[in-house]
Design goal:
It contains 19 helices and 19 strands. It is α+β, with helices and mostly antiparallel strands and 615 residues long. The longest helix is centred in the last third of the chain and has 36 residues.
Amino acid sequence: MNEKLRELRKKAMALPLSPGVYIMKNKSRDIIYIGKAKALKNRVSQYFGSQNSHSEKVRRMVENVYDFEYIITDSEFEALILECSLIKQHAPKYNILLKDDKGYSYIKITGEKWRRISYALQKDDDDATYIGPYKSSYYVKNSVEQAQKIFKLPTCNRKFPQDFRKSRPCLNFHIKQCCAPCTGKVKLSEYNEYVEEALQFLKGGDAKSVKMLTEKMMEASDNLDFERAAKIRDQIKSIKKMRDKQKVVNTTAQEQDVIAYASDNKKGSFEVFRFAHGRLFDRESFIINDPGDESEARREFILRYYTLRDDIPRNIMLDKEVEDASILEKWLSEKRSKRVYINVPKIGEQKHLVDMCLKNAFEALGQQSGVIGKQYAVLESLRDMLSLKEVPFYIESYDISNTSGSENVAGMVVFEDGKPKKSAYRKFKIKSFFGQDDYGSLAEVIERRFTEYLKAKDDENSDGGFGRKPDLILLDGSVGQVNAVKPVLNKLNIDVPVFGMVKDDRHRTRAIVSDEGEIAIRPDRNVFSFITQIQDEVHRFAIGFHHQRRKKTVTSSTLQSIEGIGQVRAKSLLKYFRTIENIKNASLEELESAPKMTHDSALMVYKHFHLQEDI
């Protein structure tokens, strides 16, 4: 511990055991972090103790702390309110900060003869008509897109009537999502009727629109205008089809928000679904840098999000528990002037909505890093199944291969972000003993691998191979393999979770095992497929290396059968010529020039492969 850290810890240990707010400052006296505590002494002193248990975000923050201040409050609830106020005022670097960029949105109807409907984020100084404002850009965008599809309005950049018959109609016409005025076959009066019906739909909603269109359809039918009646019938079908799609995100709860969080330990993604009158009316996505501890990140996000929002719902559904849930409920209830509930649903409709929200959070995170959301979701499920502290984005797996104890080797494969990272694969020849001992072989391999890690971990030029510590180790084997490896890791002071992958009688992945027992993985199909992929890959890699070694051994034995060629010369020849075929085709002079070869030994090798020739 450096001198500055000791000084700060000494100051922290003198703090009272009272609730309050602490304010971290850098050398320039700028506020870099604000937090609240139930007991100031306990909370603040944690920052300046051992750094091993801190997240990367906290470690970086502590490195920049030069001094801190604190304010004592009468209760933890008062501390939370003060924390909110100070963060809003100072916007510290290491707190989660959200931009209040929720402007208003409009439905725009252009003033030209062939009118267009679109959505806009602001009013322009033009001859267009604007309907709004609306708070939810998601709602406006969604509604306009639905209206365009249902009433077959063009979304292209063509100008009418200037572009009539200049080119073929686009794909939207062929999939019946555009009436294609560009063909010149649609009358202006007919087109304007579609526009008016679309506006009625946007203003009155689908129920009123269906009622109005049904009346028009019956009127057209009574007038024997069956072609027009059929077109209106298709519009009604499209509206009902859109409504059925929306039922997927409907809820019996009239007013609620659903919040889910995904993280890859570098960035965090918060997704918010907002419901009113039982229907999804808005959704928002937020990407957070250096999110730190998950529970604390959720708490901070809720504070920041609802500091910027006046419309607080009765119910807030989360994907996981949040720190200080009861205090947050009290704060939100006072802000709303009505009771607010924070829940983590386990089953039923609400759990389905939370899962959907979480899937979208993973997708948003995946777009940032290039990893698909499904892979993130599998890794998070694996973390929860194994009760890991963090999502295992970097996994190493090991397997031993030999034939009755001969050519004893090991293979190490790496999966990063749910995908094989072949550049990090490693092969090991067992050196410490001869014979068959899978437990001893694994112990040797793990010791060699992490001894290299301890040498390379501080090397800034490390390529992420042995210089990177994995988030999880998976062994092809059972509890015996796990127990053989753990003492080695403990001896080296390496804290990495270790599990075995167990196969059934048909050599198929059956379960994950630790020294505490088996964990069934079959209920989660995605995790089961992922573990099976890892186990198959490490087995393939290890056995491939073993076959390669056996082939070399057989080849080396062939050379050692030649008089004057021992093990050293056989290995040297193979290394120099690479294959038996190259040795066979080599001239006497080439054999003599090879390392460790003499004229006599070269002559014996040459004679062995050229018995029929006259030397």
